[in-house]
Specification:
The chain has 298 residues and is mainly alpha-helical. It contains 13 helices and no strands.
């Protein structure tokens, strides 16, 4: 399977991606409907799947493993985590990784797919619904994701990224009926999407800055809670390849704890991480931004 088979037709810069918009609308309606069919079992299922898709999937796989190569795992672990990520309804790995690598190259500058300099709504979800930010051509894909483009599994799962979600929906329907589907698919997915989008919007507007990066990235504890650690965004932009984003004891980073657990199980190695005290002492290069103040060496 080649890249040409997954390249998408995209809308113009000012046109709505109707397929995406319709699906987003339906999922939001399903999320609202779920509130009228509450059960503790359904809530537990939703929370568990939120962790599977948001932490194991988006945080540990798409972001820290595939995009930034902050650590290495056996291929079967990489593929398993990638399947978990498809359950977040954020597309396949090739498009997600390409978009995020472009974001880091042009962060809060012309060319950034989702910067609040183009508006808070745009940064949050407008970029998903309009234009071509998530619909790259094969030339762009080949330039930004040459590593994934060579992997047949990643090309395949990018083309059929919706299959795991459909399979999960059928399983939930068989186990718990429509209630489990509404909570485990619709509500859980919508919460996870807005949490991820908050990293693109909120953490580039509100929060604290430990490093003087060239962009608007900040550390936001609330976003970090809802994204399992992705909200320590200024730390990340200063040291993008670091698999650990929470750099102090009080910066809770569940995605890092997951990577640490993989290491203890012998399933992760060559883990990239930085130490604040070493940065302060000049032992670690900080080309993307120096410490704002010595107080941030705790």
């Amino acid at each position: 399977m080649e890249l040409e088979t997954i390249a998408r037709e995209h809308a113009g810069d000012d046109q709505i991606n109707w397929v995406t918009a319709i699906f987003m609308g339906l999922f939001h309606l399903g999320a609202i409907a779920a509130l009228f069919f509450f059960s503790w079992k359904a809530l537990f299922v939703a929370c568990f799947l939120w962790w599977v898709s948001g932490s194991l999937g988006i945080g540990m796989s798409y972001h820290r493993l595939l995009t930034h190569r902050g650590y290495k795992t056996p291929k079967w672990v990489e593929y398993f985590l990638t399947v978990c990520a498809t359950l977040a309804l954020e597309g396949g790995p090739i498009f997600w990784v390409a978009t995020h690598r472009i974001h880091h190259q042009f962060s809060d500058q012309e060319g950034d797919p989702h910067s609040p300099i183009d508006g808070t709504w745009w940064a949050h979800m407008g970029w998903i619904l309009m234009g071509k930010s998530m619909h790259h051509d094969t030339t762009t894909l080949a330039r930004y994701v040459p590593d994934l483009a060579k992997d047949k599994f990643h090309v395949w799962i990018t083309k059929y990224h919706y299959v795991p979600m459909i399979a999960l929906g059928l399983i939930l329907l068989a186990i718990g009926g429509p209630r489990f589907v509404l909570w485990g698919i619709f509500l859980r997915t919508v919460v996870g999407l807005h949490a991820t989008w908050a990293v693109n919007s909120i953490t580039h507007i509100w929060g604290s800055r430990r490093f003087t990066t060239r962009d608007l990235s900040t550390n936001n504890w609330l976003v970090a809670i809802f994204t399992f650690g992705e909200g320590w965004h200024n730390n990340h932009h200063a040291h993008p390849t670091s698999a650990r984003h929470g750099l102090t004891w009080y910066e809770v980073d569940l995605n890092w704890y997951g990577i640490w657990a993989l290491k203890k199980l012998g399933l992760a190695w060559q883990i990239q991480k930085v130490n604040l005290k070493e940065i302060k002492q000049g032992l670690v290069a900080a080309p993307n931004g120096a410490l704002v103040s010595p107080q941030f060496t705790d």
